[in-house]
Amino acid sequence: MELGVEGRAIFREDHNQFRKTVRIFFRREIEPNLKEWEKAGMFDPGLFKKAAEYGILQAGIPVEYGGMGGDFLHHAILHEEHGYNAAGASMGGGLGIDGSSYVIWAGGTDEQKREWLPRYASGDCIAEACFTEPQSGSDVAGFRTFAKQDGDDYIVNGSKVWTTNGSMCTMLPTVLKTEMGDGTVGMSIVLIDTDMPGVHVTKGIETLHRGCANEAEVFFEDVRVPRERLLGGRPGGGFKQVMSVLNDMRVVEASRFLAAAELAFSLTVAYVKDRKAFGQRIFDFQNTQFRLADIKTEIAVNRAFVDQCLVKAIEGSLTSVESSMAKLSASELEFRTVDQCLQLHGGMGYAHAMPISQIWTQARVHRILLGTSEIHRLAIGRSI
Ligand SMILES: Cc1cc2nc3c(=O)[nH]c(=O)nc-3n(C[C@H](O)[C@H](O)[C@H](O)COP(=O)(O)OP(=O)(O)OC[C@H]3O[C@@H](n4cnc5c(N)ncnc54)[C@H](O)[C@@H]3O)c2cc1C
């Protein structure tokens, strides 16, 4: 079985070729370095420039804006391949943070797109969207980071947390308030360089995950930001559009979660066909076959829905409820699956050297980030 391609009608030949390039990239540029990066607790930021040389960043952005001129499925493939490759589990958000450029693509002025998107494509700009604050994650209305207008500039004060790859980022599209009001009133996005005076980024929060992912805290202390850095050019302008991009991004991530579940399944099948107990292969126990049968079926059923959502994202008809359903379902399925797969590995499943253990820690957080499962249930529940 070739992971990720078999039986999926949504992909054309150019998508399949693109996937092959991403797989070569993982094999040549990531796998040989992984142990060293895990020791350092962070992968090399130079990886973004390497990825640019392979032409795999900004794949879905038009050529005139520095992209590859592909479509949203090319972008989805880059994310999925983090799921199909065991090294991807170690890298956490990995190269997938180039998805934050879609925030600029959706909400930026033409000038902002021309300035920033080519920099993402060349690997010169490494950026991740900063939403979550220490006192408020699910409750977006509770964000306190504030940008006060001062002549032609804004002065930003506040803090963010859990910024994926924060310590290697050169720029942070930051969600903040430019006007104090109820709910999301006065909410804007400002593009803040990490080397601007007053920006402090921590090395990273120690987590359950022992790979080479990095999640930073960010502090803004009287950071002077020129007005042109306001996304969309006017206060509050970019926020609504960005929320619709997040819908699409959740589906891309759902696709990655299913990819990781498929990888866990295939690693487990190989393991149980090799390992023996009580004079037979672990695979030969009926319990093992029943569990694998359920996993195979659930992944196939979920895959059909998520693929349908990916197509809707390209067509611009994906609803926020469908996006929530895809994210909720894929992340819960991924964790259930990976947990059972780890169980079928016995004690070896708990060893760091076994990829299944890294996939497990990564799957655990997928039920939390990009909106917790509870928040998505709330959103789906409201639509009923
Ligand atoms: C590894 C990792 C990477 C991340 N990457 C990023 C990133 O790059 N950028 C970024 O901005 N953020 C990032 N996050 C943050 C993530 O999006 C938040 O952790 C998530 O949105 C939850 O917010 P919180 O942690 O504040 O939890 P809280 O909002 O404090 O929630 C705590 C618990 O209460 C539940 N809860 C909250 N409200 C309700 C409700 N109304 N009804 C029922 N239950 C509720 C939640 O579901 C959860 O179980 C990352 C987090 C992690 C762990």
TrEMBL record:
<dbReference type="InterPro" id="IPR046373">
    <property type="entry name" value="Acyl-CoA_Oxase/DH_mid-dom_sf"/>
</dbReference>
<dbReference type="InterPro" id="IPR006091">
    <property type="entry name" value="Acyl-CoA_Oxase/DH_mid-dom"/>
</dbReference>
<keyword id="KW-0285">Flavoprotein</keyword>
<protein>
    <submittedName>
        <fullName>Acyl-CoA dehydrogenase</fullName>
    </submittedName>
</protein>
<dbReference type="InterPro" id="IPR037069">
    <property type="entry name" value="AcylCoA_DH/ox_N_sf"/>
</dbReference>
<feature type="domain" description="Acyl-CoA dehydrogenase/oxidase N-terminal">
    <location>
        <begin position="13"/>
        <end position="124"/>
    </location>
</feature>
<dbReference type="Pfam" id="PF00441">
    <property type="entry name" value="Acyl-CoA_dh_1"/>
</dbReference>
<dbReference type="Pfam" id="PF02771">
    <property type="entry name" value="Acyl-CoA_dh_N"/>
</dbReference>
<dbReference type="InterPro" id="IPR013786">
    <property type="entry name" value="AcylCoA_DH/ox_N"/>
</dbReference>
<dbReference type="InterPro" id="IPR036250">
    <property type="entry name" value="AcylCo_DH-like_C"/>
</dbReference>
<dbReference type="InterPro" id="IPR009100">
    <property type="entry name" value="AcylCoA_DH/oxidase_NM_dom_sf"/>
</dbReference>
<keyword id="KW-0274">FAD</keyword>
<dbReference type="Pfam" id="PF02770">
    <property type="entry name" value="Acyl-CoA_dh_M"/>
</dbReference>
<feature type="domain" description="Acyl-CoA dehydrogenase/oxidase C-terminal">
    <location>
        <begin position="236"/>
        <end position="384"/>
    </location>
</feature>
<keyword id="KW-0560">Oxidoreductase</keyword>
<dbReference type="InterPro" id="IPR009075">
    <property type="entry name" value="AcylCo_DH/oxidase_C"/>
</dbReference>
<comment type="similarity">
    <text>Belongs to the acyl-CoA dehydrogenase family.</text>
</comment>
<feature type="domain" description="Acyl-CoA oxidase/dehydrogenase middle">
    <location>
        <begin position="130"/>
        <end position="223"/>
    </location>
</feature>
